[in-house]
Amino acid sequence: MSNICEVYDEFNRYIYHLCLKLTRNPLEAEDLMQEVWVKVVRNKEQMEHVDHVKAWLTTITMNTFRDRYRKSVRRSKYVLSQPETLDVPILDLVPNNEVSTEEQIEKVVVTKIVQEKIKQLDVIYQKTLWYFYVEQYSLAEISKLMKVSIGTVKSRLFRAKARLKEILLSDYKLEDVVVPV
Prior knowledge:
Shape: elongated
Number of strands: 0
Structural class: mainly alpha
Low-confidence stretches: 76-97
Radius of gyration: 26 Å
Number of domains: 2
Mean pLDDT: 78
Order of helices and strands: HHHHHHHH
C-alpha cells in the first residue's frame, strides 16, 4: 500500500480518533493530526518498506503527540491527565522531568542573586519574606510570631516584594534575568 491517498482514505478517521483520545480536544486533535500527516507525507518513501502501516502511523502519531506534550510541559510545567482507556503505556507519555544542567545552574545563580538582594531589605521585610516563603508559615502564624495584625503582615509582604523587585531591576547586570511585570 504505497499510495499515500489510499493510506489517507483508509486511516484518516483512525488517526483523528487517536489524536482526539490523546488531546481530548477536537481543535488540538485536528492540529496534531495535520502534523502527523505532514510527517507521513515527508516520509512516504519509508512507508513502502513498512509491513504494518497502521502500527507505523500509530507510532508517528504517538511520537508527534509526545513531542508536543513535552514542549508544552516544559513551557508551562502543567501535566495533562491522560485517559485511562489509552492503549499505549502511560510511561511513554510522561515527559522526562529531569532538570537540565543549564536549568540547575540558572536556578542556583538566580537563587544566589535573590538572596544577596534580600539582604539589602530592612530586617523586618527580610523576616517577613523568610517566614512566608522559606518557612512557609501562614499569614496568621506570621502575625502571631511578629505580634502584628494579619493586615500588617500582608502589607509588609507586598512592600518587601515591591522593594525587592526595585532592587533587582536597578541592577543593570540583571537586565536579562529580571522581567519587569
